[in-house]
């Protein structure tokens, strides 16, 4: 190999052969010079470390970073919302442009209507009933255990069985009809057929002297029915006409009537209220009915008067005591023939169109159940909504009257 020399015999322009022979191809042969990283890579590494540290802090933090909405609102906004709410009527109004800048919560009454999609409604939890899948299970917060069995009771939060066990409905303002079919629990076959054939909008009333009431209650609730309990009361002509054991009597002591009433109320759960079974004389007695309404108010139950006695004081005393109340407009199966029952149902339709709602009552007879089931499939096509009895009940606690 030819080597260049400079006249002094030393080689120039070439490094020693062994110098850098172990270096990988493509890398600088000069020693001691640090390899520099681009700034973009350094920034990427730094950001990755920052994201990792932030994620760890969020995962290990005991409370979320976001504070609850109520703590974020300023005192000024809260004052403005309070003034805005105080100026609104009880039923609620539409939001104005100012409201959209400073949103406010509107408490709606049960009869309030919404005519705008821009309104956000936050409902009172006490007005919400059971989830359909849990409707057959009693709410333990609304039960008082007693020697005779579970008694309905108001919950610690003020909820009532009337609120919790009411069947939901559309809330529309059209013509509505509520039909109550009673006498369930007496005949096992009749009870089973009524639950199976009648649409879920029909309210079912159980007799306290019936059999297997808790089992039938659960089956009826699974099918979506709202329930009430029939309470036998003294009729005119008693004891010749006798509703049966545990009947509430005008001449019985208050203690005796309370004992009988407690026994009947504990026969089943998940019902919204009671109704009279017979009771022409009892419902006309002020002292006797006052005792009954005091108990219903205390336990958060409604009262349905079947409307058969013109001398009944039920409405007057119920409203004075704050008990939800509704009266029947017609007994649909006074005559146990299909044509007569249909005539009464037609009468309910006329009342509903004129007044907005109507209430009818009947018994779990085969002809009644079959006729009502067939009629229910047609009446909605005529623009009438079938609703549970609670949907047409006047509730003094909600109206403030």
TrEMBL record:
InterPro entries: Divergent_DAC (IPR006837), Glyco_hydro/deAcase_b/a-brl (IPR011330)
Ranges for region Disordered: 1-30, 68-102, 129-160
Residue ranges, compositional bias (Low complexity): 73-88
GO biological process, one term: carbohydrate metabolic process
Transmembrane parts of this sequence: 39-60
Keywords, alphabetical: Membrane, Transmembrane, Transmembrane helix
Name of the featured protein: Divergent polysaccharide deacetylase family protein
Taxonomic source organism: Chelativorans petroleitrophicus
